[in-house]
Q: What sequence folds into this?
């Protein structure tokens, strides 16, 4: 069955609406999931390992944590290797993501993940990386709806709990995402996560939330929105604009590790947490200590710290030149340099407030043509 795209309004640069604040906490906790918060920490390859997931759930507000994708190939899946992905943070549901197009092995992998305690088994239908796409998996699978149905139906038969699919808006076109959504729904997935960029857009341009709204309006299963929730208030705006049932946040949580807590504050009617420079320093020291306890080599810890700092720098006034500390190659010097730059900064000086008062990430007022 084909579902032609309901054409979204043809927004031009002139009539694009500025992204204002829509904070309506009523109904935030009305969602169809068995989770404490309708929020998910996104899967991020190379980032979303167990230590990261534990760090991100130290503060309240995260409903579900996701693993990065586990690649399932044509070779018989080693169940023991798959089970290693299921590492839970006590008290927080875990979504384990698999990626592959082998019907039999994906079904076996999905069953093994569920058996070993994954609260959600998710399929990656969004990865845009050329090395992944060349193998016909990730976002490449969006071009073959029949294959999608067969893989997902086989996975469904093996997963007694929640089964989900994380999609992009399309591969090189965004004119059949409704058809993809219907195929996944018919195959029995319990919910969809939608990152509304095409494969060819990678992470550039703006996430077109109208695609989330179109899928939500069309499908019976719940839809989770993802993409460019840079500030806590954006989460409420996404729900208001799209009707999505929950939100997923990735890069913005690296930039602002307090974002989930701020969302929870707003949902509870509390003034949202406003981190200061000293809070950022303490957080980075904590991150360093955690990684030093896990990784044998300081060079690996430095790599992880630089990952965090690259995003942190996006919330810091450019004149403080935080990115310069990335040149350091030992942990103590790097942290000392961060401290020199950020100590004593007031919350108002950092772009980490719930409302995005400095707006460093507010590029997204114009939608691309799908
Ligand atoms: C470094 C990195 C790795 C990612 N790895 C995955 C992955 O393993 N699986 C997946 O479904 N999406 C992956 N994504 C996409 C994110 O889950 C998310 O859809 C995307 O970053 C948009 O959301 P955001 O604006 O909240 O970051 C990755 C993104 C980044 C930046």
A:
């Amino acid at each position: 069955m084909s579902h032609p795209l309901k054409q979204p309004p043809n927004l031009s640069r002139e009539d694009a609406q500025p992204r204002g604040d829509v904070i309506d906490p009523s109904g935030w906790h009305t969602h169809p999931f068995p989770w404490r918060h309708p929020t998910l920490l996104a899967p991020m390859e190379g980032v979303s390992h167990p230590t990261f997931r534990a760090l991100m759930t130290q503060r309240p507000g995260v409903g579900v944590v996701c693993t990065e994708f586990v690649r399932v190939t044509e070779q018989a899946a080693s169940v023991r290797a798959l089970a290693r992905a299921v590492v839970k943070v006590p008290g927080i549901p875990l979504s384990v993501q698999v990626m592959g197009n082998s019907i039999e092995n994906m079904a076996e992998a999905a069953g093994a993940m569920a058996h070993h305690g994954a609260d959600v088994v998710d399929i990656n239908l969004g990865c845009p990386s050329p090395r992944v796409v060349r193998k016909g998996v990730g976002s490449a699978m969006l071009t073959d709806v029949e294959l999608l149905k067969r893989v997902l139906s086989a996975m469904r038969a093996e997963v007694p709990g929640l089964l989900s699919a994380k999609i992009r808006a399309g591969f090189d076109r965004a004119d059949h995402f409704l058809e993809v959504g219907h195929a996944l729904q018919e195959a029995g997935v319990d919910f969809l996560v939608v990152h509304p960029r095409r494969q060819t857009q990678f992470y550039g341009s703006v996430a077109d939330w109208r695609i989330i709204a179109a899928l939500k309006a069309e499908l019976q299963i719940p839809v989770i929105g993802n993409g460019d929730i840079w500030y806590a208030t954006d989460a409420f705006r996404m729900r208001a604009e799209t009707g999505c049932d929950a939100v997923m946040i990735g890069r913005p949580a690296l930039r602002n590790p307090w974002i989930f807590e701020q969302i929870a504050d707003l949902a509870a009617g509390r003034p949202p947490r406003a981190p200061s420079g000293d809070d950022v320093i303490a957080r980075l020291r904590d991150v360093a200590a955690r990684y030093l306890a896990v990784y044998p080599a300081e060079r690996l810890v430095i790599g992880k710290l630089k990952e965090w700092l690259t995003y942190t720098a996006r919330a810091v006034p450019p004149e403080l030149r935080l990115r310069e500390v990335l040149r350091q190659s030992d942990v103590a010097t790097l942290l000392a340099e961060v401290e020199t730059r950020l100590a004593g900064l007031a919350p108002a000086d950092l772009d980490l407030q719930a409302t995005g008062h400095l707006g460093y990430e507010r590029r997204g007022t114009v939608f691309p043509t799908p």
